[in-house]
Design a protein that fits this description.
DUF1707 domain-containing protein, 8-stranded parallel sheet, alpha/beta, DUF1707_SHOCT-like, 199 residues, 3-stranded antiparallel sheet, 3 helices, elongated
Length: 199
């Protein structure tokens, strides 16, 4: 099992740590010289261990240990389910949809896990998943029957969380995609035009 400290980090995590260093500088917890050195180290960090190393002696900013796993069940009958924006994603998500509409937008969500498991129990529903730009997808355990299935996520090694899909989708539609994005510092611009803050 991979040690959480060895997990790869994304640009947004590096930028978040630089933001914490800004706050530490403003509170005189570090000197301007330390800020410069630590910011450079944060931007060059490849793993969580390296990234946490620049914060380890600053009180109140490093989260130690592993993130506890969480499970969330979403149920919908003849109604709508929507999750979007900066919502907290659990390690395991179970989606029960019966003749409903479901949108799960993970693009800028908070995902503290290396693997997110999504189990479907879907019948005659319209389901849309928007995965983060930096993510991978494993749909090998998913069963799709009499359903319009559109998967626009190309396989390949992309840094970030892996989404593992399982369960059954019977009837309706299932669309999986990633947003086209343009990142400008702490702002992510998505097309069609939508701006999300990611700091």
């Amino acid at each position: 099992m991979t040690d959480p400290r060895d997990l790869r980090v994304s640009d947004s995590e590096r930028e978040h740590v630089v933001g914490l260093l800004h706050k530490a500088l403003a509170q005189a917890l570090i000197t301007p010289e330390e800020f410069t050195t630590r910011s450079a180290a944060a931007l060059a960090a490849r793993t969580r261990s390296e990234l946490n190393g620049v914060l380890i002696d600053i009180p109140g900013v490093v989260r130690t240990g592993t993130v506890p796993e969480q499970r969330l069940e979403l149920r919908s009958v003849l109604s709508k389910i929507r999750r979007r924006g900066r919502w907290d994603v659990p390690s395991e998500l179970v989606v029960h949809c019966d003749q409903s509409w479901c949108e799960l937008d993970f693009a800028v969500a908070r995902i503290p896990y290396q693997v997110v498991k999504v189990e479907f129990d879907v019948r005659a529903a319209h389901v849309r998943l928007m995965l983060p730009y930096e993510s991978t997808l494993d749909a090998s355990m998913l069963q799709v029957m009499n359903c319009r299935y559109v998967n626009k996520v190309r396989p390949g090694p992309v840094p970030g969380p892996q989404f593992q899909l399982s369960g059954k989708v019977r009837g309706g539609t299932l669309t999986i995609t990633r947003p086209p994005v343009l990142r400008l510092g702490s702002v992510m611009v998505r097309f069609p035009l939508k701006i999300d803050r990611i700091d």
